[in-house]
Design brief:
Blueprint (H helix, E strand, L loop, with lengths): L7 E4 L2 H13 L6 H20 L15 E6 L4 E6 L6 H9 L6 H7 L4 H11 L10 E9 L8 E6 L4 E7 L5 E8 L9 H11 L7 E4 L6 E3 L16 H12 L7 E7 L5 E7 L16 E5 L2 E4 L14 E6 L8 H5 L2 H24 L1 H15 L2 H4 L4 H7 L3 E2 L11 H6 L8 E5 L3 H5 L5 H5 L5 E3 L4 H7 L2 E2 L2 E5 L13 H25 L5 E4 L8 E4 L7 H9 L10 E4 L4 H10 L14 H8 L11 H20 L5 H13 L2
Parallel strand pairs: 2-8, 12-14, 16-17, 16-19, 20-22
Antiparallel strand pairs: 1-6, 2-3, 3-7, 4-5, 4-7, 5-6, 8-9, 10-11, 11-14, 12-13, 15-17, 18-19, 21-22
Helix pairs in contact: 1-5, 9-10, 9-12, 17-21, 21-22
């Protein structure tokens, strides 16, 4: 190989320098993984050439026998990994090695914690690939030529990982890539062929391309791995360690997966799936457009990474491979989008994954709890996206509730239904911005009094989940903050009589209050939800919920204008005093309308008097105060907080 152009010195992208420093310090205790990463890159390069050569056989350059070779030079203290894959051009070398051209770079670095153990996991999820060589090497040289380009288009790249690198064009007769590691002092282990063979068998035995050790004397080679696609082997021949190592290869993860499913489907379509659930969520999980999980093979020939057509967006965290016997070898992304065969494979993959999750939820509750903590919010998206599997997904949902301690989401809809008291007909839930806000909501007061469990839904996606989940196993889902609350089936005769009496006694007051509030409210009515609070706001059954309206506004989206319904508690001293004084009957009991000296004395210490009695403007001010404090409790904020403060001060001072 001879140089054909002067070397050019360039600086690493700032993120690359940061990543190199993090890797060297965070991954040093697991440094042997550098060999796995470099072999995985070599395998990917061979797969990509095989695919591109389907439409251009000349790219093989007369050599279609793929292989990866490892060579040791003890005297020079170098370890070399060689492949005859796709190779890279000069611009590709600069783009792929000098910079990190990934959409999640910023989120990745924002996710780093400074904790070595946690950062190691994040770095693994990011996919360190080539950069892992600097864990053991003081200098790395890369020699490469892209398939299809002439020998004069070879490239040599060299760096010590300290901030810059050199790149130059050279003569290179063969396609592919050669990575030469000049090992640091103290890394003699990686000059031992037996040690290297053990590492290859441990991490890369599943690679479907032969990995050969070049003998020390340079005479001949010895294949180290089985060189057969792991997913094509019978399940009984594969142990858990092999499954785990294959996952680490396809997912570029350092941790073992949480679970996997391996199945061969036969029928109109024949295909094999090996799909994994990671143990932890990737840092870019919430980027629905950046889905990088499933590799597509056709008859064991690699076709593409990130085959998003094989799984719906709510399963974007799944990793693995799908190998079809029936798709054409020249299949493209455009063909995938229009293929009924792909629809069949997609449906089969989803079914297998839901089977796996249902089995885990049924038989391994602790493990399913770990899965739900990492991926539950994403799985909930399926309630919106996947109508065909909505019933199955509903059974996998988990929520927190008023009966559970803490804010962990552990309650299934089946759990809730199983412990519903006799007479309860609906599954009740409350959506809120936070767990603390949900648990302190006045809408829960009557449910606590009657010991009725309420599901607390505090993920933003929950608002859309409830729109698409109207019932579960014949039991309707009801929001405790929407519509008229009907708990007649759980009320005794005395409670029903008291409610009816209160409705009669307070009707004139309600009409006056409604008139004074005007367009601020859609309606005013007696509540059966409250036991301690004077008022609350609810929305009509068909209107946009207050929490969803807040979410839409926070996202900058237009939300249809809705007016709240104000519900007042006739048993609360403030409400009863307002009613009494506005009607000129101070001290009248809220349930009976009768007056007593004791009640007047008690109420006079609990609520300010309206002055003058029956003043419409003054009643309006108190009505607005009841409305605003209910809105503050429900929404966490007011449109006019300064007006609220002025109103409180004026009413408290009697001005």
């Amino acid at each position: 190989m001879t140089a054909t152009a002067q070397a050019e010195t360039l600086g690493f992208q700032a993120e690359v320098r940061q990543l190199l420093d993090l890797m060297i310090h965070s991954l040093y205790s697991n440094k042997e993984i550098f060999l796995r990463e470099l072999i995985s890159n070599a395998s990917d390069a061979c797969d990509k050439l095989r695919f591109e050569a389907l439409s251009d056989d000349a790219l093989f350059e007369g050599d279609s026998d793929f292989r990866i070779r490892i060579r040791v030079d003890k005297e020079a203290r170098t370890l070399t990994i060689i492949d005859n894959g796709i190779g890279m051009s000069r611009s590709e070398v600069i783009d792929h090695i000098g910079t990190i051209a990934k959409s999640g770079t910023r989120q990745f670095f924002a996710s780093l914690t400074g904790d070595q153990q946690k950062d190691t996991r994040l770095i693994g999820q990011f996919g360190v690939g080539f950069y892992s060589a600097f864990i053991v090497a003081e200098e790395v040289t890369l020699i490469t030529r892209r398939a299809g380009l002439g020998p004069e288009h070879g490239v040599r790249w060299r760096s010590d990982g300290q901030g810059s690198y050199t790149v130059e064009n050279i003569e290179c007769k063969t396609r592919g890539t050669e990575v030469i590691l000049k090992l640091r002092a103290g890394e003699d282990d990686f000059l031992d062929p037996h040690r290297l063979q053990a590492i290859v068998r441990k991490y890369s035995d599943h690679i479907a391309i032969p990995i050969a050790m070049v003998k020390v004397d340079g005479e001949g080679e010895e294949t180290v791995n089985r060189a057969s696609a792991l997913w094509a082997r019978p399940r009984q021949e594969i142990d858990n360690d092999q499954y785990d190592e294959f996952y680490k290869h396809v997912a570029h993860d350092f941790e073992a997966p949480l679970a996997h499913v391996h199945a061969r489907i036969e029928g109109k379509q024949e295909y094999t799936v090996l799909l994994y659930l990671p143990a932890h969520a990737p840092f870019d999980l919430w980027d629905r457009e950046h889905r990088r999980g499933v590799k597509l093979y056709v008859r064991r020939v690699f076709i593409m990474d990130d085959a998003e057509q094989l799984l719906p967006p709510y399963l974007r965290f799944v990793r693995g491979v799908v190998d079809s016997n029936d798709l054409p070898l020249n299949v493209s992304r455009e063909i995938l989008q229009k293929s009924r065969d792909i629809d069949t494979i997609r449906g089969g993959c989803v079914k297998k994954l839901l089977d796996l999750l249902e089995d885990m939820a049924r038989n391994e509750a602790v493990k399913y709890g770990r899965f739900w903590k990492e991926f539950g919010r994403v799985l909930k998206e399926g309630m919106v996206d996947d109508h065909a599997n909505r019933v199955r997904l509903a059974g996998l949902l988990r929520f927190s509730s008023t009966r559970e301690v803490g804010d962990e989401q552990t309650v299934s809809l089946a759990d809730y239904a199983a412990r519903m008291p006799s007479g309860q007909k609906a599954i009740y839930y409350l959506t809120a911005e936070s767990p603390a806000g949900a648990r302190s909501s006045p809408h829960l007061e009557i449910f606590r009094k009657k010991n009725i469990e309420v599901l607390l839904l505090t993920d933003r996606i929950d608002e859309w989940v409830t729109m698409h989940l109207s019932e579960f196993e014949g039991k309707p889902l009801r929001s405790v903050a929407k519509g008229a609350l009907d708990l007649d089936e759980l009320a005794d005769a005395g409670e029903k009589a008291a409610q009816q009496q209160a409705q009669r006694d307070f009707q004139p007051f309600i009409e006056r209050l409604k008139q004074s509030l005007g367009e601020r409210v859609k309606d005013v009515r007696i509540t059966h939800r409250l036991t301690d609070s004077p008022s609350c706001v609810v929305t009509d059954e068909q209107d946009l919920g207050a929490n969803l309206e807040r979410i839409l506004k926070a996202a900058g989206q237009a939300a249809p204008a809705t007016r709240p319904i104000l519900e007042i508690n006739p048993a609360h001293p403030l409400v009863s005093r307002l009613r009494d004084e506005s009607e000129g009957a101070a001290g009248a009991h809220p349930m009976t309308g009768r007056t007593s000296e004791a009640s007047r004395d008690t109420l006079s210490h609990r609520a300010p008097r309206l002055d003058p009695i029956g003043d419409a403007q003054r009643l309006g001010e108190w009505g607005v105060l009841l409305l605003e404090q209910a809105q503050l409790t429900a929404y966490g904020s007011l449109d006019d907080p300064a007006g609220f403060v002025r109103r409180v001060n004026a009413l408290l001072s009697g001005g």
